[in-house]
From TrEMBL:
Keyword Membrane: yes
Residue ranges, annotated region (Disordered): 20-52
Major place of residence: membrane
Species name: Acinonyx jubatus
Gene symbol of the encoding locus: LOC106972492
Membrane topology recorded in Swiss-Prot or TrEMBL: Single-pass type II membrane protein
Matching SMART domains: CLECT
Protein name: Asialoglycoprotein receptor 1 isoform X2
Location of the C-type lectin domain: 213-330
GO cellular component, one term: membrane
Lineage: Eukaryota, Metazoa, Chordata, Craniata, Vertebrata
Amino acid sequence: MSGLGKNWRKKRGFHVTTDDLETDWTPHRPAPFGPSLSSNPSLDLGPGPASPIMTNDYQDLQHLDNEDNGHQLRQAPPPPQRLFRRLCSGPCFLLLSLGLGLLLLVVVCVIGSQNSKLRDELQALRVTFSNFTASTEVEVKTLSSQGGSVGRKVKSLESQLQKQQQQLSEDHSSLLLHVKQFVSDLRSLSCQIAVLHGNGSAASCCPVNWLEFEGSCYWFSRSGKSWPEADKYCRLENAHLVVVGSWEEQKFIQHHMGPVNTWMGLTDQSGPWKWVDGTDYEKGFKNWRPEQPDDWYGHGLGGGEDCAHFTDDGRWNDDVCQRPYRWVCETERDAAG
């Protein structure tokens, strides 16, 4: 193409080169008949009227440019659309799909492998936790069993210690009572010896087989009588059925009478409870069993329960006066002679 055509294209804003025109422009126009303008040195290109040949060339060139532009606009798609068509056509699309499939397969395999590892680790953790829980439960049960065994042993030892302390206290009280009784027996024996030698008064001593305690003499029977018969026997001995005035006297009598029912000098046959020697019952010492006296009539012997006696543990109870129990007589030491 001539330089005029190139300059015109630059002025019009087109960037299509001559090579493009030669490549894309399919119809080949023959060269103009006659000598070319550029090869004739004698041709005057100065100002003047345009020749018919040049006018025709210009019109043909303009027409050619219009056709070329239309042909390029119709046949040359935009670059992105052309790239997409190339990628989506033929073997390229197949290879791309195959690559994406392989990539997805690799991703799935990796995720599956990781998931399998996580499941194995979770199962191992579950087994470890289960074993730990089982061993902990066994240890707790063992400790609880040992703790319970130790607790039972401690309670058993405490119970044994309490029993031993109670037994020791009882033995101590019994020993003191024996010592007092030994001193009383020794005094009575000394008094009797003095009477036999004529160096003392019989009024200052307890009779033979009587026991002295805090200025009084006591006699304990070894057989049984009803309450009225026992009271009569004591009066014949210049004494009366025992009257308990203190806890010390209670322990002294309980120690010597043994674990048997024994009459005492307390009765309510005439109404309220009274001691046979006139001692005030309401203000005096008492040692009844729980819920006693009850004056029970269900014994089948007729009447109520009007006479008091010591039970096997030393506490008091009211009973039918006709029952044959042992008894204890009491008298003042000075009145015993």
